[in-house]
Amino acid sequence: MAHRPFRLGLTGSIGSGKSTVAAVFRQAGVPVFDADAEVHRLQGPGGALLPAIEARFPGTTGPMGVNRQALSARVIGKPAELRALERIVHPAVGTARQAFLRRQAGHRLVLLDIPLLFETGGERAMDRVIVLSTPLFVQRRRVLRRKGMTEGRLRKIRAAQMPDHLKCARADFILNTARPKWQTRAEISRLLACLRRSLVR
């Protein structure tokens, strides 16, 4: 009988380096569930969530899926509208996450990359949680490089996320991702070695 895999949650604020860290885990042979990638799939061309999103937010979808800038303009900084979108998206992502876990039943360890892990109470389903932390000036520099990002949008996004110090207070492991990538990789290697040793016992 396949064993339930150890669930390692990964979270952090926007611009904290989640995609980079998740890639390191993949390279180390750890199956990764990427919540953001799943949202893109569900909202992309032919995505299962398009009818519900269009019904609630008319004019925000088209042949190529969700118009992310149009949808963001409708929900960022508007708590009631954001909650309405979350009621559409979060259950679907949760279903996809459970399907992923069933597929990985033969693995000892999996990583679940979930940006709003604490904000949605998702940490209760994790065995341990890694929080990625980076100074605000680094976060700002990274995020403002993104197409369509502005200072105003960044402020609204940060306002909807749990502050970094509160995430860190609830973390089992904290990775400082402002350092050179080789240092982050080395720290992940040490963490994985420790976890794998503990899972063998």
UniProtKB/TrEMBL annotation:
<keyword id="KW-0067">ATP-binding</keyword>
<comment type="similarity">
    <text>Belongs to the CoaE family.</text>
</comment>
<dbReference type="InterPro" id="IPR001977">
    <property type="entry name" value="Depp_CoAkinase"/>
</dbReference>
<keyword id="KW-0547">Nucleotide-binding</keyword>
<dbReference type="GO" id="GO:0015937">
    <property type="term" value="P:coenzyme A biosynthetic process"/>
</dbReference>
<dbReference type="GO" id="GO:0004140">
    <property type="term" value="F:dephospho-CoA kinase activity"/>
</dbReference>
<keyword id="KW-0963">Cytoplasm</keyword>
<keyword id="KW-0418">Kinase</keyword>
<comment type="function">
    <text>Catalyzes the phosphorylation of the 3'-hydroxyl group of dephosphocoenzyme A to form coenzyme A.</text>
</comment>
<comment type="pathway">
    <text>Cofactor biosynthesis; coenzyme A biosynthesis; CoA from (R)-pantothenate: step 5/5.</text>
</comment>
<protein>
    <recommendedName>
        <fullName>Dephospho-CoA kinase</fullName>
        <ecNumber>2.7.1.24</ecNumber>
    </recommendedName>
</protein>
<dbReference type="Pfam" id="PF01121">
    <property type="entry name" value="CoaE"/>
</dbReference>
<feature type="binding site">
    <location>
        <begin position="15"/>
        <end position="20"/>
    </location>
    <ligand>
        <name>ATP</name>
    </ligand>
</feature>
<dbReference type="GO" id="GO:0005737">
    <property type="term" value="C:cytoplasm"/>
</dbReference>
<keyword id="KW-0808">Transferase</keyword>
<keyword id="KW-0173">Coenzyme A biosynthesis</keyword>
<dbReference type="InterPro" id="IPR027417">
    <property type="entry name" value="P-loop_NTPase"/>
</dbReference>
<dbReference type="GO" id="GO:0005524">
    <property type="term" value="F:ATP binding"/>
</dbReference>
